[in-house]
Amino acid sequence: TRLKTIKVGEAQTENLSITQVSTMALPGQGQATHRIVGRVKNSGSETISEARVVLAIDGAEVATRSVTLGDSPEAVVEFPIALNQAGVHRCTLRVAGDRFAADNTYYFTIRVEPPIRVLCLAGRSRSSEVNKAYWLRSALDQQAAVPFLVDVIDPRELAPETLPSYAVVVLMEAATLAAEQINGLQSYVRGGGGLLLVPEDRAEVAAFNRNYADLTPALLQRKQLFSEHAPVSLTQVQSYHALGRSLQDGGPMDFSAARFYGYWSVEPVAGSEVVLTFENGDAALVAGYAGSGRT
Fold this sequence. Notes:
The chain is mainly beta and 295 residues long. It contains four helices and 18 strands.
């Protein structure tokens, strides 16, 4: 028996490839702006000092970077990119600089969700010129994972026919709505819309409970006020509830850090759930259903 070897490759080879790609939304810039990070590897025996990496999105080349490897077998390349169109974007990261192109391209996708449209019904505070929706806008702007598009109008300007274009309605001035507008809200919620009720300071208990009996997950009882030296805090969140989980999407939160100097005590209606609780046991956030919608 005789063994004969046959030379099938060169002693010195070059082989570049993209071995890994990760994408992330940049904090504070919304989900439209991403950082794309690719790992370039030289698996050959020849040293390749520099390579060109091309990013293509939806079939069009959008950016090019030069990456320096030198004596290192791997290097990392980054692309900040803005994707303003909602939907799934098909992307490729391709490295050039060797003679074996079969493993030079990495295929991946980036999904950009459409913004969630929110309608806030709020006027201006009686004690200042600050719009009551300011804090709502500030809180939603911190949500990098999901973009929100917030429209703020005076409740008296609400046209019920516009409600279906919104995913959620936030009502901060319940007392100013007319009967026709309340009926429009009821139809909107029962058809699948979301409604967040935030009773204002001057809300009338009997009128609120009567006008929103078919919508509210809790009935108003009385206003609770506390001194500046003895505020109350939140102590419990029902993490099993969808709202509780969404409040902690970014990681565990210390809700006890917030201080409250007043709130409306409420009586949850049958079928609703208390999601957030004050330290004294009173409900802070109550969720329920009305038809196919949520309140």
